[in-house]
Amino acid sequence: MTLEFHDVTYTYDGATNALAHVSFSLEPGKALGVVGKTGSGKSTLAQLADGLLMPSSGEVRLDGATSAELRGGMQRRVGLVFQHPELQLFAATLTEDVAFGLHNVGVAQGEIEGRCSEALNLVGLRADEFASRSPFELSGGEQRKAALAGVLALHPEVLVLDEPTAGVDAAGVRDIEVLFKRLLARGTALIIISHSMELVADICSRAIVLDQGRCALAGTPEKVLAPDNVDVLQRLNVDIPQATRFAAKLQGKGFVFEEPVLTMDNLADQLARQLSRPASGTRLSDEEPQA
Ligand SMILES: Nc1ncnc2c1ncn2[C@@H]1O[C@H](COP(=O)(O)OP(=O)(O)OP(=O)(O)O)[C@@H](O)[C@H]1O
Ligand SMILES: [Mg+2]
C-alpha cells in the first residue's frame, strides 16, 4: 500500500485554496504528522486522503489508482476518524455501534461479532466486559476508544485521525499513543492531525506543517523541530514539545545539545551524558535515611 498526494490543491469556493500544492507519500507501518493552526487546511487534507473530497488539481493516489477512479473504494481502505468521533456514537451497546459500519460495507454476518470483539480489545476496551455496555455510560476517554474501534473494525490500511487527542486527559493520551504504536507495528499507516508537535514527535517518522494550505515545513520531526525553525513554528501557533523548549532554555545557559531534543527521555539522556552520569541507576542522595 502506498498513499500519495501529488501537488494537491483544493478550493471550496473557487477563489481561495484551502490546500495548495501539497505532496507526500505514505508507506505501511509509517505515520505522517500534519500540524498547523486553525484554518490551515488539516481537515481538508484528511478528507482528500480518504476520497471524501476530490482534488481541484493534482492527484491523490492509492497504490497508483487516483481517488477519482477509486471513489467509494478509497473510503473502504482509508479510515477517517473525525474530530470528536465520540459524538457519533449512537447505538444501545458498543457491539451494535461497532457492527453498524461492518453491516454497511457488507461484512458477512458470521464474521461481525468476531470483528467487533477484536476491535474493542485492540483499543483496550476488553470485549468480555464492554461489548454489551451502553456507549453513553462510558467515560470520555472510553468513548473516544469506542469510536476508534468502530473504524478499526473495518480493517483500514490507512487511518486518518483528525485531532485524536483533543479533549483527552493525560492518561487517555498515553493509551492512544500505545494504540497508535500497536497499529504501526501491525503495518497500518497513520496520518495524525494535531496542533501539537509533542504527539507527532512521539509517533511520526515524518511531519508537515501547514500554513494557509501550503506546506511551510516538512521532514522528520527532528528536522521540523530544528532550532532554526522554532520562530516559524511559534508564529504558526504550533505547540512545541516541552522537552524541546526546555533544551532551548538550557542551551541559553551554556549547555550544548548534539542532537535535536524532542522527548523527555532524550533530554534526560543528553543531560546525563553532559553531566557525566549514567542515565540509569543514578542515586539521588548518599545521605543516611533519617529515622
Ligand atoms: N465546507 C467548507 N466550505 C467553505 N470553506 C471551508 C469549508 N471547510 C473549510 N473551509 C475553509 O478552508 C480552510 C481550511 O479549513 P480546514 O477545516 O481544512 O482547516 P483546519 O486546519 O482543519 O482547521 P481547525 O484546526 O480549525 O480544524 C479555512 O479557511 C476554512 O475556513
Ligand atoms: Mg480541522
Task: Explain what you see.
The chain contains 13 helices and 10 strands. By secondary structure, the protein is an alpha/beta fold. It has 2 domains: 3-240, 3-Layer(aba) Sandwich (Rossmann fold), CATH 3.40.50.300; 241-280, no CATH class. The structure holds adenosine-5'-triphosphate and magnesium ion. Magnesium ion is lined by residues 42-43, 162. Residues 42-43, 162 line the site of magnesium ion.
Please give a quick description of this structure.
This protein is of the alpha/beta class and 291 residues long. The chain is built from 13 helices and 10 strands. The chain has helices spanning 42-49, 67-70, 72-77, 94-104, 109-122, 127-130, 140-152, 170-185, 197-203, 221-224, 230-235, 242-252, 264-274; strands at residues 3-10, 19-26, 31-35, 57-62, 65-66, 78-81, 158-162, 189-194, 206-211, 214-219.
What order do the helices and strands come in, and which of them pair?
Layout: E1 3-10, E2 19-26, E3 31-35, H1 42-49, E4 57-62, E5 65-66, H2 67-70, H3 72-77, E6 78-81, H4 94-104, H5 109-122, H6 127-130, H7 140-152, E7 158-162, H8 170-185, E8 189-194, H9 197-203, E9 206-211, E10 214-219, H10 221-224, H11 230-235, H12 242-252, H13 264-274
Parallel strand pairs: 3-8, 3-9, 6-7, 7-8
Antiparallel strand pairs: 1-2, 1-4, 4-5, 9-10
Helix pairs in contact: 4-5, 4-7, 5-7
